[in-house]
Structure formats: C-alpha cells, structure tokens
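Example 452, ligand pyridoxal-5'-phosphate.
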Amino acid sequence: MNNNIDWQKEDLKYIWHPCSQMKDYEQLPPIVIEKGEGINLYDINGKCYKDVVSSWWCNLLGHCNPEISASLKKQADKLEHVIFANFSHKGIISLCMRLVKLLPEGLSKFNFSDNGSSAIEMAMKMSFQYFQQTGKSEKKRFMALSDAYHGETIAALSVGACDLYTKIYKPILMDVIRIKAPDCFRCPFGKNRDNCSCECFVYAQKQFEKYGKQTAAILVEPLLQGSAGMKIYPALYLKKLRDICDKYDVHLIADEIATGFYRTGKMFAVNHAEISPDIMCLSKGLTGGYMPMAAVVTTNKIYEAFYDDYSKGKAFMHSHTYSGNPLGASCALAVLDILEKGHIQKHIQDLRPYFNNLIKEKFLNMKNVGEVRSIGLINAIELVKDKKTKEPFSSGLRLGYQIYKKALKKGVLLRPLGDVIYFNPPLIIEKKDMDYVVQVAFECAKEAISEL
Ligand SMILES: *Cc1c(COP(=O)(O)O)cnc(C)c1O
C-alpha cells in the first residue's frame, strides 16, 4: 500500500523538525527510521546507524529493549492513562517507593510532568511559591550558570545561557542572575583538573553576596554542562554550592535531566559530591527513552509549606494532562528492574577506561584536538583552531556539522555540539561498537578539517 510513497518528500511537505534550519534539509533530507535494536537504528532502506547520542540522550538501555517493551505492552492492555488529581495507580506509587531509596537523602515528594523543560518550570514555580508562603517574599529571583541549558520553554530558556537557543528571545526572558561557570579547559585561574580547588567559585560567592537575599533558587546541571559542549567540572564545586545555598537560604535545584541514571557513572551526578539538592529534576533516562515523562522531586520541608486548609490558597496549582502517566511509569519501573540487577553499573566501570583510552589514543595527537574529557561513558573531543591558544574555529565554518554529515554516510549518528564531537551512547554499548564509532569519528574529523 505504501510502496509508492516518497517518505522524505512527504516529511518535508508537513514537518518542521526541531532545532533545525529546514533549508539544510535540501542537502540532507530527513532519515526515515523504521526500527531500532540496541544501539542500532535502521532506516527504510535497511541502512544501519549506530546511535551514539542515545537519540537526544534519553535512550538509556538500547532501542527496543525487550524488558522495557514487555512492561509497556502489558501496561497498555491494562490502563493507558488516568487523571492524576485525586486519582492514582499502582505503577506510579511503586515508582516513587523505589526511586526514594535511590535518591539522595531527603528527597521524598514527587511531582510528575511529561518533559524536562516543564519539570524545570515546575521546580522554579515551586521554589518561588515556597518563599512567598514562608515569609520571605523578597526571594523572587533565580541564579544560573553561564553556558547553562535547562530546556526550551520561556522560564527554562531564561535560566539557560546558550546563545544559540536564547539570543533572539532575550527581550521576553526573565532577568536571571548569572554566575560564570567553571571552565576547566580554559580555566581563568590557569589551573588544570588535577590541581584545582575550584578557585572559580569566587564568581558564585560574589553573586551570592550581592543577590543571595533576593534569590529563591539556583539551577545547575550537576558536573556536566551537556549542551554547552559536554563541559565537565569538579564535584567540589557542587559541595561549595550546597554550603553557600544553606548560608543564604537559597534552594539548590539539580537539573539531572541529562545526568541521571548512571550517565556520569553514578546513579545521579550529585552522588559524586555526596550532596542532596532541595529539588531535583529528572526526565530523559527515567523511562529509558521510551515515554515522555519527567519528575520533580523535593523535600518534605518544601512540601509542608504548601500544606494547609484549602481556603489559605497555598496549594501548588500546577498540572499537566499527562502527569504520572501509567505507560511512562511502566517503562520507568522496567528501567529500575534492570538497573537494580547491577550489570549496567559493572558494564560502565569495565568499559569506561577502554572507551576513554581508545578515544585518547586516536585523537589526542591530532593537531586540532584541544581536549578529550570524559565522565561515565560520555566522552567529548573539543576541536580547536589552535591547540596552544585554544582558539576555536570560526562557527561559520560549521565544522561539527560537516563531521556529522560525513559520519552519517558511514552509518554513525554523532551530533557534535558546535565543534565538540561527543559520544553519549546507550549504556549497553559493547567494545566492538566503540571501536567502530571512534574510528569513524576520527576519519570524519580528519577529513572535515582537511577540507576547511
Ligand atoms: C534535555 C534537557 C532539558 C530539557 O528537557 P526536554 O525534555 O527536552 O524539555 C533540560 N535540562 C537538561 C540538562 C537537558 O539535557
């Protein structure tokens, strides 16, 4: 029946793809995927692509993971969705019971939504309302790091600071207090990762001294600023942040949307610093990349500030149609089933050095490689015009995009962030696939640079 349809043509007739200049599709039409298995995606012509970006960082345990699929199918035959105000279901209750044991201490109250950006919005509203209702109504503002990424809706964009996404909207964004983020590759204090004691925390200190009193919360991507180019910073920075938040009564909101569920080698990135945030946002890996679902988890202390007679008007009047969706919960439960067996953690521990060494051996000697950095199975290679001065290539060259196109031809889905090539594969990736994707990335980078 569908034999005569030109899928790419029909796609372009109707679909406005996310985060794309659609004119680019004249040269590179959409790749129409038919099925997935493990780290592989297959298009309608049967061509295989190794998905080492976990399809926007959400696929945790491989495409069409049999255990997650089975759990989802079973749930679909039982209950697909139910209003979440005053109604509940066993799946979501079980999920909270299990997550609370894995979360940092003190986080025990769950709100649900259906994507990361909405979770960020919810966390910000919750923090703001908390202070309105606890006699500190002067705390109305938010702090965030430079180069931050927290999603695409207006408040999430406001706390974000990647010009590519925010620049045009600045006139309609909130006025956020910006703290210069740690930058371990281009450290302003001339330190490196081995001899640093977070001298750059002074930037945070200054802003807290100046604005701490009027600030409700600071949002951070713990340890890993993903969209900024997989920038990795030390756990010590988070410890210091926890201390200063306590000092100034500012909520620490950990955006673990990208880092949660062993992406950094531990269940949550904040575990590296052994701290508990006041609010944590989860999404992406939560359902293994199966269903859109997000959770905002907070403390009993914050919850209590909303708990009163209805007439006091203190309730958190925030909802999303798909809050606590049963299909999402069934996938999240299957993800926890798999994680609780412990194989994945061991797999990451075993393969992390292999992957990182492989990449270092290939790339470190290249003329234009500024840094190779890694955490968990995430590895990033920052390409620079000048290795000595760390001067970047002109963004107009779109070097990363050239590498992306070349890698697609060879069946690897890389999606460089600017000129940072990175791997953030499903955690089940095996050595032979690592060998292949690193070799392809290397060849494509070399070729693209030589053509500049
Ligand atoms: C992806 C992401 C978000 C936004 O999540 P969406 O589901 O795309 O809205 C927020 N913060 C971080 C750190 C992310 O990686």
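Summary: The pocket of pyridoxal-5'-phosphate is lined by residues 115-117, 120, 149-151, 221, 226, 255, 257-258, 283 (CB under 6 Å).
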